[in-house]
Design goal:
Elements: H1 4-18, H2 20-24, E1 54-59, H3 63-66, H4 68-79, E2 83-88, H5 92-105, E3 110-115, H6 117-131, E4 138-142, E5 157-162, E6 182-187, H7 203-215, E7 230-233, E8 243-250, H8 257-264, H9 268-274, E9 288-294, H10 300-305
Helix pairs in contact: 5-6
């Protein structure tokens, strides 16, 4: 005799086999939630190199006779592939307006270099550009006139090479309050071979200026936020090294003035003056000191091997 319970089970299986829809009506197992796909951000566009700078050079009073070094510097910059034109300081505002119009039409870094009254002119043009919100990449004043104004905020890098005891020049130019750019000042009064009418003729300074201008399109990584202004009275037996500003570094165990100078390829006297220390000062680990830095690092070996320049060049250590 067949068990009635087995008959019920067999009947239910047969019913499901011939009518699959009944099985679909039963509750399905929940599916795992889909993981949302997060779109990756597009890669950052490559940094476009800046166009070559436009360089404006200005002679001082009676420039064709006394500022001939500016013409020689212009020739070297032109030979290096730059647009570098020389003007009389009496055309200052005319050339300033021309430079501003040129920038508005085709933006490119502006470099201003001037000797004596030409140095004053370089700062005047910087002030004109500031009113138009136009940046000035580099200003180099070479023994500018005493009447030269302070460096405005739109200047990214300012270098002053001067003689504080000069009657014809002697402009100890400082920056306006709140200036955040790179600043370096070099007083050469201790070098008896340097005068107002030969200070702009140094081949060594010319070489460094050409190097700096060459580096300008590639300096995005060197920010202004950490720039420390530098002011030096250059020893009489040294050449000028054109550092564009200083940077703070921590002193590590075992560091000395000499070891830090060797690591950063700068003279001990520069570190001493940057920090108001004596050259044999003892340093403390964790202490913060200012070290000068170059826009374009020099070839130390070449500098040491080079023979002393003949007068009226500025002599080097």
């Amino acid at each position: 005799m067949i068990d009635p319970r087995r008959l019920v089970v067999l009947a239910a299986c047969a019913l499901l086999a011939f009518n699959p829809g009944l099985a679909a009506a039963s509750p399905a197992k929940p599916k795992p939630a889909a993981v949302p796909v997060v779109a990756l951000p597009p890669p950052a566009p490559p940094v476009e190199p800046l166009p070559p700078p436009k360089i404006y050079l200005f002679r001082g009073a009676m420039g064709p006779f006394f500022s001939t070094g500016i013409d020689r510097l212009s020739e070297k910059l032109t030979k290096a592939g730059f647009s570098a034109d020389v003007y009389e300081f009496t055309l200052c505002r005319l050339i300033g307006n021309r430079a501003i119009d040129s920038y508005k039409e085709s933006p490119a870094p502006i470099v201003l270099i001037g000797h004596s009254m030409g140095g004053l002119c370089s700062v005047i043009i910087s002030e004109m550009a500031a009113k138009e919100n136009i940046p000035i990449s580099l200003v180099i004043a070479i023994d500018p006139a005493h009447a030269t104004d302070d460096v405005p905020l739109n200047v990214e890098r300012f270098i002053n090479i001067f003689l504080s005891d000069s009657v014809l020049g002697g402009g100890d130019v400082v920056a306006v309050p709140g200036f955040r750019g790179h600043y370096a000042s070099y007083d050469l009064k201790l070098n008896g071979r340097v005068t107002h009418i030969n200070i702009e003729k140094s081949d060594d300074i010319h070489r460094q200026i050409v190097d700096m201008v060459t580096q300008l399109p590639r300096i995005q990584a060197q920010t202004q936020a950490d720039a420390v202004p530098l002011r030096y009275q250059v020893p009489g037996d040294t050449l000028v090294e054109l550092w564009d500003s200083g940077v703070r570094i921590p002193v590590r165990t075992g560091d000395t003035m000499e070891s830090i100078a060797a690591t950063h390829r700068v003279p001990v006297w520069a570190i001493a003056q940057s920090n108001s220390l004596v050259e044999n000062a003892t340093l403390t680990p964790g202490q913060s000191i200012v070290v000068p830095r170059h826009l374009a690092p020099p070839d130390a070996a070449a500098a040491m091997a080079a023979p002393p320049p003949a007068a009226p060049s500025v002599r080097k250590k």
